[in-house]
Amino acid sequence: MSVLVTGAAGNIGSNIVRTLLSEGEQVIGYDTAVPPPHSVVHTLWGKFPFVLGSVVDLPLLLNTIKQYKVRDVIHLAAIMMGARERPVETVQVNVMGTLNVLEAGRILGLRRVLCTSSFAAAGAAGKDQSKLIPETEYSLPVNARDAIAPYASTKLMCEELTYMYRTDHGVDAAIIRPARVYGPGLPRGRSAGVPIQALFEKAIAGEPVSVPQGADTRIDLTYIKDEVRGFVLAYRAARLPNWLYNISAGRLYSMGEIAAAMRRVFPKVPIEVGPGEWRGMSGKEPHTGPVRPASDISRARRDLGYEPQFGDLDRALSDYKSWEEERRY
User: Which domains, from first to last, does the chain contain?
Assistant: First the structure.
């Protein structure tokens, strides 16, 4: 039996595929495009089954599952970048695509269906950062909608659909809620909402970094290999007592901490971030993304045995550097 990974050419999806393949799993990739050169599975193209298709195409999805004797689905296919410019397509892919995956799980009696949300679906922007965001918080405050729609609103709908299929239709379905993922497989230029990525891209190129302000801003981060670990633990669990799990480092990092770790990992590159609120690399841009509390990962610890392995920034950045410089995964 095999596992189908939708969005297999994307950042988290490609890392899940590579990890499962390295552990001897039978993996079927599914995406609308082949893995690009920056993907961690680009060099593996042709070495495992990969179906070019959209999750909006329910007949193709069902046929793929039957053809490859798929037992489980890890669903990551979604539109995030450009969601505001393509609202209709975003709803079709994110919401209807998730509905199709869940319906496939119901019709074909799959063992498990894991769907992907986002910590943005919990809203919580501007809330007290001393309090963690629990899985029980899944509503978008009205004052946060302008900042996070439509991507986060589609993810909230995906959460509701997953809960419905689990409770009303008996599908063993659950949601994984990531928080600001960075690491191997992320394309350059996607750093607006992930400030650590903005610093890393400069540092790996050997370019000096001097940001006038931002050291006091604190953000929740997840190194990609920790995110993958959460997905894999949920996929392999004998049972899932709950339907929604936060997977992240479970803590906040200040941009000052991040800059200090960057200096240790890239000792030859001058890296300075001044005090105050992060406003992008120039220090003059509007704030790049809402600041939220950290995600509460106690449920994942209890139910899945999840524990971040790359919560130490030096270890995560060194690992990321090895990938960029040597393609060592």
Answer: 2-181+222-250+293-310 (3.40.50.720)
Q: Smallest Cα–Cα separation from 44: which of 16, 73, 17, 77?
A: 17
What are the backbone angles phi and psi of residue 18, rounded to the nearest 5°? -60, -40
State whether residue 220 is helix, strand or coil: strand
Q: In the prediction, which pLDDT does 301 show?
A: 97
pLDDT tens digits for range 41-85: 999 999 999 999 999 999 999 999 999 999 999 999 998 876 678
The answer to whether 95 touches 132, Cβ cutoff 8 Å, is: no
CA distance 115 to 98: 7
Residue carrying the six token digits 């007592």: 241
Distance between CA atoms of residues 58 and 50, nearest Å: 17
- Does 221 or 238 have the greater pLDDT score? 238
Q: Give the pLDDT confidence of 133-179 residue by residue, as tens digits.
A: 777 765 554 444 444 567 888 999 999 999 999 999 999 999 999 98
216, 256 contact by CB (below 8 A): yes
C-alpha to C-alpha distance for 303 and 239, rounded to whole angstroms: 9
- Return the number of other C-beta atoms located less than 10 Å from residue 311's C-beta: 17
How many CB atoms within 10 Å of residue 88? 8
Contact partners, residue 329, CB within 8 Å, separation at least 6:
18, 40, 184, 323
